[in-house]
Amino acid sequence: MDQHSYTQALLEFLGASPTPFHAVANLGSLLAEHGFVEIRESDDWQRLLPGRYFIRRNDSSLIALVLTSSGPAATGLRMAGAHTDSPCLKIKPSPARTNHSLLQLGVETYGGALLSPWFDRDLSIAGRVLWQDGEGAIHSSLLDFKRPVAVIPSLAIHLNREANEQKQVNKQTDMVPIIMQAGSEEEANFFALLGEELLRDNPGAQKAKILDHELILYDCQPPTLLGIKGEFLAGGRLDNLLSCFALIRGLLEADSPQNSLVVLNDHEEVGSMSASGAQGPFLLSVLERLLPDVNDRRRCLTRSFFISVDNAHAVHPNFADRHDKGHLPRLNGGPVIKYNAGQRYATSSRSGALYRILAERAGVPIQEFVMRSDLACGSTIGPLTAAAHGVAAVDIGVPTLAMHSIRELAGASDPWHLALSLRTFFGTPDDDPAWQCLG
Questions:
Q1: Residue 17 main-chain phi, psi, to 5 deg
Q2: Rg of the Cα atoms in the chain
Q3: Any residues with CB less than 8 A from the CB of 12 and at least 6 apart, and which?
Q4: Class of residue 104 by CB neighbours under 10 A (exposed 0-12, middle 13-18, buried 19+)
């Protein structure tokens, strides 16, 4: 796959994945197309035979495995991870409210979202719905309206002359989208509207009883290339679906992949403390079943290397003073290695050096990021995974502007460079001298 084909595939994936549920479903289909076999946590399996496998949890997290005839206890695992969730507006369980003949939905802010860009956007609704059929069976279905159905209108400047000076947004009262003009209570039944939409893709849902839902709002504007020469990539959820896609494509296209594992966790944007988050037991439970002997598992992890892939902050030309002057990642300058003395990123001199070697072999340029010492630093699943499993780890990511906005901006060549470095990582032979710094 060349850069153009890769970029087009990435844009299609981003547009088709408005929620973590959709992202995991699409990546699962991609893995299955390339010979990966899905196994379930409820199945009876241990010490898997050489082959390609993937496992889902909560339909929003995923682990992909490549196992060779050389057991991972002897070789270690090429491990890498990212997160499937993005900051957004999540619809409340009983959201409907009618104000002045307009049906609105109560929402919660999920993660550290930039709220101002959500106003006056064409918004749609997507997520997971749990419903019961006429026989009493419970079903879980993905739902995506795929069209503009909601908007959060700004207050006209005539009614707030200080709007451009006042940037404070009240999450409870200001962020309430309109979805329709409601002439009656029957028309304003949100669950009936969900049932109608559910029926479009589920013919057996004629008598569906909606039991529960996890639904979000998302921007209908599709991801695209922009700039005079098409040198930028703009879209929603670049943080961090761009990284998820790069990891899976890198694994699929590696030459002779070694014993490898990719973990894609949900709930990173809200702290990772969940059954499917990086602070949960998902990865550990798979490792314990893959290597039930404690000594084998510890030998494996000592020889393993974990690449945590999450977007990095590119230098903003209008706000360059918010960056450390010696570390100014630029768009289309290549993946960024992220450092933090307080271990908010997992990079060490050893792990940073190893990734530099991989990038050099892939012909990929490298940049560095360190947060200003007087500003608080974000974090990733890297430190959580390194601490929980004792594995050497590095934090990297594509430089991005407008991170956590409804629409983010990256360089058009950086996703391709990231994928090339990951392909090299998964395909480098176990006897390569570079790995001697591990174990």
A1: -130, 70
A2: 23
A3: none
A4: buried
- Per-residue pLDDT, averaged over 310-327, amounts to 95
Cα within 13 Å of Cα(53), Cβ side: 19
Show the tokens assigned to 331: 């768009």
Q: What is the rounded CA–CA span in Å between residue 393 and residue 352?
A: 9
15-24 confidence digits (pLDDT tens)? 999 999 999 9
Q: At residue 166, does pLDDT exceed 80?
A: no
Q: What is the dihedral of CA 236, 423, 270, 13, to 10 degrees?
A: 30
- 312: number of CA atoms within 13 Å, CB side? 36
Q: With contact defined as beta carbons under 8 Å apart, do 395 and 308 qualify?
A: yes
Phi, psi of 135 (to 5 degrees): -90, -5
Q: What is the DSSP letter of 112?
A: S
Q: End-to-end CA distance of the chain: give it in Å, rounded.
A: 34
pLDDT category, 291, cuts 50, 70, 90? very high
Peptide bond into 202 cis (omega under 30): no
Please tell me the pTM assigned to this model: 0.96
Q: What span, in angstroms and rounded, lies between the C-alpha atoms of 205 and 265?
A: 30
Q: Which domains does the chain have, with CATH numbers?
A: 3-86+236-437 (3.40.630.10), 88-219 (2.30.250.10)
Q: How many CB atoms lie within 10 A of CB 392?
A: 22
Single-letter amino acid code for the residue at 357: I
Amino acid at 127: G
C-alpha–C-alpha distance, residues 427 and 68, integer Å: 12
> Which residues have C-beta within 8 Å of that of residue 53, sequence separation ≥ 6?
36, 37, 38, 39, 64, 65, 67
| C-beta of residue 400 within 8 angstroms of C-beta of residue 410 | yes
| Spatial contact of 270 and 20, defined as CB atoms under 8 Å apart | no
